[in-house]
Amino acid sequence: MSKKRYTLLKKEGKARRGRFETPHGTIETPVFMNVGTLAVIKGAVSSMDLKEIGCQVELSNTYHLHLRPSDDVVYKLGGLHKFMNWDRPILTDSGGFQVFSLAGMRKIKEEGVYFSSHIDGRKIFMGPEESMQIQSNLASSIAMAFDECIPNPSTRDYVEKSVERTTRWLERCKVEIDRLNELPQTINKEQMLFGINQGGCYDDIRIEHAKTITKMDLDGYAIGGLAVGETHEEMYKVIDAVVPHLPEDKPIYLMGVGLPSNILEAVERGVDFFDCVLPARNGRHGQVFTKNGKINLRNAKFQLDATPIDEGCECPACKNYTRAYIRHMFVAKEMLAMRLCVLHNLYFYNKLMEDIRAALDNGCFKQFKAQKLKEWDGRA
Fold it and tell me: Where is the active site (predicted)?
């Protein structure tokens, strides 16, 4: 039996307000995880910055850290928390997404996946046991099961076979993480395991898989294989189908999603955890989120704009600089522009989650969601 770590504090419809205990601190949910693929947020953002902008959980990538600096190096330096000087929860994804994103550089077999490194072409093998061993070396709070992230659309026959293999891989992950957590040399002997629901856009395959993995009594459950080619409507349909078949006493994580509007829709459907590279990636290109929707600070119309990115925002960029100055730095190719926009966007997402939690606490999430969607459409 997995230890009870998730407490459902309140519900409004299907939307859930919860609390999740990890070996590295408590996570208030719903939560957005700030993505630091290589144990750092792209855009010159430090661990101290993350605390200032209200980040609860940092997410790092198993496959990329295995390549550089290598999980052995991170292990010798005391694990990811010491390595990046971060004392709050860390989730590591399993390498399963790279099975999708590096499709031209890999071969899937029953034992695992053979990759060619995207850096230097060297051959790499990763299966369930290897993924768990790497994540154990990284010593993250939460390890993700190794799976195949299936592209949409895929044929029913392919999806069925892939999901069956992902289930067998999950069983192997569970056995291996239990073994690793018992070893004396393991840094984090309480590392948790989240399973991943797959099934493309086939509701019946998704539901059957959700029922199967629920029986394994894991620490949490993710809905994977979305935001990979399907429409937003198809994504919401899958969430609606899957969530009722996942345990209510475990956190539910929607992987790789998304826009602020996607988050509100998914929270309403019962999702607790989110992650996406979007806020940091957009910020590096001068695209920033505001209470009235997204703007591009590179546009000439901001040349004389002496207002902050977003009036009333408490992020380091908005408290200290104008749109005109940040635009000037982008034009002059100064790194500070990128850093400030990434900080702003991550603050925007973290604050959005804080406001969602407050709305759920106060029983007014439905009104909050309607108001936010209206504001972001620029009709407020």
Answer: 93 (proton acceptor), 275 (nucleophile)
Task: Detail the residues annotated as belonging to a binding site for substrate.
Answer: 93-97, 147, 198, 225
Active site residues: 93, 275
278-336 pLDDT per residue, tens: 999 999 999 999 999 999 999 999 999 999 999 999 999 999 999 999 999 999 999 99
Point out the annotated binding site for Zn(2+). 313, 315, 318, 344
| Alpha helix ranges (H) inside the chain | 47-52, 62-67, 71-76, 80-83, 96-101, 128-138, 156-181, 203-214, 232-242, 260-268, 278-284, 316-320, 323-331, 335-361, 365-376
Lookup: tokens for 305: 């704009």
- Structural domains of the chain sorted by starting position, each given as residue range(s) with its CATH number in brackets: 6-276 (3.20.20.105), 283-376 (no CATH)
Binding residues are 93-97, 147, 198, 225, 313, 315, 318, 344
pTM score over 0.90 = yes
pLDDT in tens, 142-164: 999 999 999 899 999 999 999 99
**Alpha-carbon torsion angle 111, 116, 122, 123, nearest 10:** 10
Under DSSP, is residue 153 helix (H, G, I), strand (E, B) or coil?
A: coil
